[in-house]
Input
Amino acid sequence: MKEILFEESGLSTYNDADLWLKLALAEDETEKNKLIATILEPWNSGVDWPMSAFPEQLLKVYPDAKFILTMRSSAEAWYNSLTGSICKIESNNWSVSIVRKIPLFPFTRMKRVNIMMGAVVRSQLEGDNFVHMCDPAKMEATMKWYDDWNARIQRIVPKDQLLVFKTGEDGYEQLASYLGVAVPEKPYPSVNSTREVKFALVQIRLVALLVVAVWLFFLVTLVRGIHRLMNERDTVPRKGIKDN
Output
């Protein structure tokens, strides 16, 4: 997801949001497989949605690939993380919608990515979206979806190609052993925490407020300018009219 928005690796992902959207809406399996192959052609690996939302297609296109399924200690722990991160963003639509209108990179991509992610989520939630998942009244159904998802991955991916990675317990040792690489010397990272999401939301709100402030400044300046011009016109003597 970060690459689609920010291109941190230096590779262009300008059209990726549109391709993932097309994949989410596609019904023909052959077309889905072709789209997966096209999108992922420049990459050797990937994580997170939208890619991880299509395990069957990934397994079909890359039959020898290694898969990693990250699992929380329980569905409840995962749900608490969801409500403390993604749901916080979904509930701040006013600031996010303003930021998406900024005509600068990467803000120009946010609207397209939002549309794409909505379609991807609906394709995996039988037409529902994050609003459904974040509804407290749907908590039990959402946690059941999480358990069903984990069972689905473990059912379709061959055991010798799947690592079940326990978040909060496992680390570099398990990953390195599974992937056949050396264990990194630096500490295992902790990213996308609830604290980081809250900080990101603060930044989004500040940017949105700045945009509103700038817009109001120009609006007030425009109105005052028009008012000044009208006053000047009213005070200019008309030609041909003289005082008695």
Q: What stands out?
A: The radius of gyration is 25 Å. The first strand starts at residue 67 and ends at 71.
